[in-house]
Automatic annotation (TrEMBL):
Main function: Stabilizes TBP binding to an archaeal box-A promoter. Also responsible for recruiting RNA polymerase II to the pre-initiation complex (DNA-TBP-TFIIB).
Recorded GO CC terms: transcription preinitiation complex
A Pfam family matched in the record: Zn_Ribbon_TF
Region (Disordered): 1-42, 71-99, 319-339
Annotated GO biological process: transcription preinitiation complex assembly
Residue sites binding Zn(2+) per the record: C30, C33, C48, C51
Protein name as it appears in the record: Transcription initiation factor IIB
Gene name in the database record: tfb
Length: 339
């Protein structure tokens, strides 16, 4: 059975023109020549294939901000909402009712509405921390974030500290020890693992417990969790101390060279890395002719002048021995070549 169009030829032409105009107005056809449009996602432009007219530019990219090169990486990076974080007791998966007491338009709530929101916040807080372990974790992670922020510790190290504390909580290591002490110990362990320049004295300034308590907790954490924490490198503290002294890069380079010479001579074994860093700065100042006294270095590094005086001599002797051995090796090579 054949079908016939109910439209006349003129009506069909008029309908086709209306369809073309509709496509042009909705962005499916070029408004100039009627050609088809192509969108270039890399440039954010919509261009006519026929005449090259740029119909639209600076288009908003509604895709993800990350890049993935295979399906596994894409699945790992895909998310809805904010990424999870170890720095919150619920890993950031719960909702949080704000404290602004304003509606979506920025208008202040009435007294009755504010009282209602306060009750909702109270119940929301209770549901988020339903048992003792969650309340413990929330308090500890808050302490880690507070101390890390005060010391300028990067978020990656604070995240590591949160993981260490979670491990201690899961292993049942907290009974008999304060939350603040274990939180300080976890943060210091993360600082050591990340090779950051914060010292025990810095931790004592921001911690709510005394130094003896959190150092005991740190040794306990290190032993029971078998943390991969190596001996601190004296060179780690140089940038911090150089900044405190407002010294130049040449002094820092010379101090690093002295520390490397001291390592080769095993001067650093059994010595305080902070004391060696302070002594290296003072010794570097002597070699470069800088007007820097032991008292000045002592005040900036919080190391006694006695320690600086003892260690800087050892570093200078180590560098001198290293230079002598290098000269002897060069002379031996030259004599062997001449023979």
């Amino acid at each position: 059975m054949t079908t016939r169009s109910i439209y006349s030829p003129d009506e069909r032409d008029e309908s086709a023109d209306e369809q073309a105009e509709s496509e042009a107005s909705t962005g499916h056809a070029c408004p100039d020549c009627g050609g088809s449009l192509v969108t270039d996602d890399s440039r954010g432009e919509t261009v006519c294939e026929a005449c090259g007219l740029v119909v639209d530019e600076d288009e908003i990219d509604h895709g993800p901000e990350w890049r993935a090169f295979d399906s596994q990486e894409r699945d790992n990076k895909r998310r809805v909402g904010a990424p999870t974080t170890e720095m919150k007791h619920d890993k950031g998966l719960s909702t949080n009712i704000g404290w602004q007491n304003k509606d979506a338009y920025g208008n202040s709530l009435s007294t009755r509405q504010r009282e209602k929101m306060q009750r909702l916040r109270t119940w929301d807080e209770r549901f988020r921390t339903r048992d003792h372990a969650e309340r413990n974790l929330k308090q500890a992670l808050g302490e880690i974030d507070r101390m890390g922020s005060a010391l300028g510790v990067p978020e990656s190290a604070r995240e590591t500290a949160s993981v260490i504390y979670r491990r201690a909580l899961d292993e049942g290591m907290l009974p008999g020890r304060s939350i603040e002490g274990m939180a300080t110990a976890a943060l210091y362990a993360a600082i050591r693992q990340s090779n950051l320049p914060q010292t025990l004295d810095d931790m004592a300034v921001v911690s709510r417990v005394d130094e003896m308590e959190f150092t005991r907790a740190y040794r306990y954490l290190n032993r029971e969790l078998s943390l991969q924490v190596g001996p601190p490198d004296p060179a780690t503290y140089l940038s911090k101390f150089i900044s405190e002294l407002d010294a130049d890069d040449a002094l820092e380079r010379q101090a690093r060279a002295l520390i490397e010479a001291g390592k080769e001579a095993n001067v650093h074994s059994g010595k305080s890395p902070v004391g060696l860093a302070a002594a290296a700065i003072y010794a570097a100042g002597l070699l470069l002719g800088e007007e820097m006294t032991q008292e000045t270095v002592s005040e900036a590094t919080d190391i006694s002048t006695v320690t600086i005086r003892e260690r800087y001599r050892e570093l200078l002797e180590a560098e001198s021995e290293l230079d002598d051995s290098a000269v002897d090796a060069t002379s031996g090579a030259e004599s062997g070549a001449s023979a």
